[in-house]
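Entry type: protein chain
Record version: 2
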Amino acid sequence: MSVRDEREPLDPRTTSLYDYALFRHGIEPDGRVPAGGYPLPDGPPPVSRRGRLGPAAAEAAVTEALAPLLADPISARAAEAAHTRLAALPVLPEHIHRIVLGIVPEDRYTGRARRLARRLTRDGTHASAVHAGLALLCNLGDSTDTPTVRALGMLQEFSRDAVAVLDRIDRTAAAELELGIGAGAPGHDAFRDAVAGGDREAVRAALTGGPTPPGPPRRIAEAARLDQLLAEYPQDPALTVAACRLLLSMAHTHQYRPEVLDYAQAHPVYEAVVARAHRLTPSADLYTLLLSLAQDLRSGAGAVLPWPPGRRADLIATLGRLLAEPLWAAVPDEAAAAAAGTGTGTGTGTDPSGHRAGWMLRTGRRPFIPPAAPATFEIEVVVSDPAVRNVVETRIVLGGRPLVPDLFASGGCNPPEFLLDAGRLRAGPEPREVQLAEAYCTEGCCGALYVTIHRDGDTVVWDGWRGVEGKRQPPAYRCDAAAYDAEVERAENDRSWSWPARDTARLITDGLRERPELLTAWGCSTGPAFTAWDEPDAVELHFTYAPGAEPGVPGKGDPWLQFTWRIPDDGTPPKSQARAALERLAAQNPRTWARLCGGSREYAEALGHDWPAEGL
């Protein structure tokens, strides 16, 4: 990136925003861009809300300003005219970017459109013109545009659009820009400076010398050129571990679209990690990493990548053989003994309850057991490493391909209590719509994935998809009814993935479903019990108090209170714990012991409840 020679103040009326960005960066004492980027120079006042064009009128006005120029030779005078028209429009600059993205010039005019884009980005003095130029470059730019776009990305106004352009033409530059303008987090500057300085050893040290640098994991991998770094340091086990952690973070499904699906170098990084795993020293932490990687390759986001035929199965088999070797196979038992205080083994003090060791023992060989036949429909309940996140998913695999990460971008699969315990996957003669996944925020915010299941003679049909990413409409899926019923029955009866607290929660839920009066008698709503996110060995029951015609369901404007009852695992059998919990609900008003966690403060205090000191 070039730097202007002059250091005098610039006139925002005649200086392009590109030159302004270079000037601001050039006068930084340490050469670093501040967190968030530089503000724009003072310019004309923003478009007022009252004078702003509506969506349809704005789209027509922007198209009218640009369309003629895309069909004529681009001269300096024409570009200046476009700049003037765009600057004068009563449209927010960021809206201009969105509108111009939808303008696709005819093939014979793409060269002219590209030249116009470059003039607007290099010479534009108004944000509207630069936004339009960046939007055109999103579809028409190439690697020669990287320096200009990177410079503009240092300005707050254009940082997001610049990253979007660079994602199309230079992924490494996009990552460096996004991480650069997100500076400020502890550990961030060392990694960013190593990348910016091209010091590969310092990049390796930043990745392996402590926690993963803060930032989106895909951007960290792209900025580090992780696939190349692994090739440069083939004997470094710490780098192998760091790469594995980044892959698993990218493949995490309880977020917006798993980042690994957009990571262009995912294949070589998976290959390198699996090929080098035999050099790692067996330990509980590394066992869980490799086991989680196998889960991902079998039925997670990593399985959705376009693998060559049979290659994904080979990688899973390689991990399976490694974890079956005596030193690795002994790790779960040793971790359990260490947690129980009966041995020293390879266990870790970070698992005092033994829940992680129990997860290793329950999960150990599950990812490596091939289907009994080349099945086209599989149900797999997957529990993630509890030391990372307490997530239980019902993963559906169709024709060897995981369904949810392929079709839905905003969250993971629903839990087995929702899909299996409630019998929602069973196929009957009447069509039934089933929610397979919900956005990690809420359905009302970012949607959910639905399918309609019905029986058609000796075939079960899945069709009527709803909520699919990108408004795709997958074809109908058909399965032999006998094979389908057998797989659903097997999954419903398989509890080998579960643990005592999860079983207790299921039994409490079943008991409340059969005897809803245990809560409604106290003016409370019934609801499912579940294991706590922050303490998987504890059961939580949430219920709402709202007396009225329908207990626990407040009418419009009526006050209500929400409570949480946390039940720690006391070591007795789940049936005994569930029975004791249900008997307590029958005998005593749960509002007298459960923790208040929501609702109306005034209503709570009127009923004699103390409002939580920390607030809600």
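Comment: The chain has a mean pLDDT of 86.
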